[in-house]
Design a protein that fits this description.
single chain, about 525 residues, mainly alpha, Growth Hormone, Chain: A, 23 helices, binds beta-D-glucopyranose
């Protein structure tokens, strides 16, 4: 074992006094609706792009190919324009995150969520009313901007407002909403695919519901004490802290936030600061976690489940149906995480899921490799069921591990001084890799065929090894104490933590080595 023990468990800590107050729960539920919107956007495109009416209007070439028997099964949806419809949202989102970093820091978490809501609403109008491809793509781009702002602000909001001992569970409300959004989208597609010729319009327009919920939610919640204090509203921050913790005894936590925000104030260039050596562990982990989350291959399933099942020879209806099943499994398994994350901890969930994801992907690859050839999609009833069961097994394990933890861990490990910048790098990398997968998957499926699942399973192996050696446990550690309690204790990362003096120099405007 390197360094004589790599499984760093969180040291026991003194809890701040905090009741689980209704205002915390309600604020978190409202804020988490940002996840609903993200999930709806993720889930809606797969079903829409497999609807003939939609293809006839915007992608007639794909429709022709889809209806030709001669076309290879694995390749019938391989079209860059079609993939751009799905992926443009992510490209826009990753650009938006850099503006979102500024707004979360300067305007606060709450206003940033409001900005996201407004982007969503305008985007939905463009999409629902689309007359041509341009309107469709502009709508997706506006939705992407909404995702950029929402995914930046919501996880921070949740991690900061939650009492330490249930922080993981509350933060996962974001991911729970993502999965509900995906399921909702799948159900909507299932219904609208029967409405000709404008069912797809209804699918895209119903995104207005989560968009309106987020906008209303953002109008009603209070900002986090951390954000208020960071922006100099000390008294208001303290009052909010008392209200959300349900006690007047908030002095220790208040002081800790004030101290964190004093350090944060000294940082003039948040992104440059993020590159300092002492911020390396959080940065590396945040970036890798996002890359890994996407390389689990989850979005190959989420975006393209109907298309994928169709490719495997399920009829159109059956494939949407299967997508609904995977959507439901995704929601239910996320609940497991809400319960387990602050008990079993982050590492245990990620490691267990690694094994489960690896095995299910290998089984899928083997079945498809033997059963689905280029020209024959006769999977057979029994095998088809096995594939759906394995896809569900895989989705379940993702849903209680990489899904929520990919968002939770970065949002809780950065110190306040780099939290906004760190979160925007997190979101940006996430969306970048989501984009790459969205854009490449159908082509990869066409070229790699069943081996695409081997490709993803190899990544699952790599990420599990990384977790084993390099990911510290962060459960039950107060958010402003991560540096001392986690990073300085870790067998590997502690070597980056020995430059407090340099830190001091930076704070005083002197030069320091990066
Ligand atoms: C990921 C998304 C994915 C979703 C599936 C999220 O955590 O970021 O890319 O589609 O989980 O539930």
């Amino acid at each position: 074992m390197p360094g004589g023990g790599f499984a760093v468990s969180a040291p026991s800590v003194v809890e701040f006094e905090a009741k689980i107050t209704p205002i915390v729960i309600i604020s978190c539920i409202m804020a988490a609706t940002g996840g609903l919107m993200f999930g709806y956007d993720v889930g809606i495109s797969g079903g829409v792009t497999s609807m003939d009416d939609f293809l006839r209007e915007f992608f007639p070439a794909v429709l022709r190919r889809k209806n030709q028997d001669k076309e290879s099964n694995y390749c019938k949806y391989d079209n860059q324009g079609l993939q751009l419809f799905t992926s443009s949202l992510y490209l826009a989102g990753l650009t938006a995150t850099f503006f979102a970093s500024y707004t979360t820091r300067r305007l606060g978490r709450r206003l940033t969520m409001l900005i996201a809501g407004v982007f969503f609403i305008i985007g939905v109008i463009f999409n629902g009313a689309a007359q041509n491809l341009a309107m469709l793509i502009i709508g997706r781009i506006l939705l992407g901007c909404g995702v950029g702002f929402a995914n930046q602000a919501v996880p921070l909001f949740l991690s900061e407002i939650a009492p330490t001992r249930i922080r993981g569970g509350l933060n996962i409300l974001f991911q729970l909403n993502v999965t509900i959004g995906i399921l909702f989208a799948n159900l909507v597609n299932y219904g609208t695919s029967k409405i000709h010729p404008w069912g797809w319009r209804l699918s895209l327009s119903l995104a207005g519901i989560p968009a309106a919920m987020l906008t209303l939610g953002a109008l009603f919640v209070t900002d986090t004490p951390n954000s208020l204090i960071e922006r100099g509203h000390l008294e208001e921050g303290k009052a909010v802290l008392k209200r959300i913790r349900g006690t007047d005894n908030v002095e220790p936590e208040f002081n800790e936030i004030v101290e964190a925000s004093r350090i944060a104030q000294e940082v003039k260039h948040p992104f440059r600061n993020l590159l300092q050596r002492r911020n390396r562990p959080q940065l590396v982990i945040a970036v890798l976690l996002q890359i890994f989350q996407q390389f689990t291959g989850i979005n190959a399933i989420m975006f393209y489940a109907p298309v994928l099942f169709n490719t495997l020879g399920f009829k159109s209806d059956a494939s949407l149906y299967s997508a609904v099943i995977t959507g439901a499994v995704n929601v239910l398994a996320t609940l497991v995480s809400v319960y387990a994350v602050d008990r079993a901890g982050r590492r245990a969930l990620l490691l267990e899921a690694g094994v489960q994801m690896f095995l299910s992907q290998v089984v899928i690859a083997v079945v498809l490799g033997i059963k689905v050839t280029d020209k024959s999609d006769n999977l057979g009833h029994g095998w088809a069921i096995l594939v759906v069961v394995m896809v569900c097994t895989y989705v379940a394990s993702f849903a209680w591990s990489w899904g929520p933890l990919g968002w939770l861990i970065p949002s809780e490990t950065f110190p306040l001084e780099t939290r906004s910048a760190g979160q925007s790098v997190t979101v940006c990398v996430n969306l970048l890799f989501t984009f790459l997968i969205a854009q490449a998957f159908l082509s990869m499926l066409c070229h790699l065929k069943f081996a695409i699942f081997i490709f993803f399973s190899a990544w699952v192996l790599v990420m599990s090894v990384f977790v084993l050696f390099f990911l510290p446990e962060t459960k039950n550690v107060p958010i402003e104490e991560m540096t001392d309690k986690v990073w300085k204790q870790h067998w590997f990362w502690k070597r980056f933590m020995d430059d407090d003096d340099q830190h001091h120099n930076i704070a005083n405007g002197k030069n320091a080595t990066v």
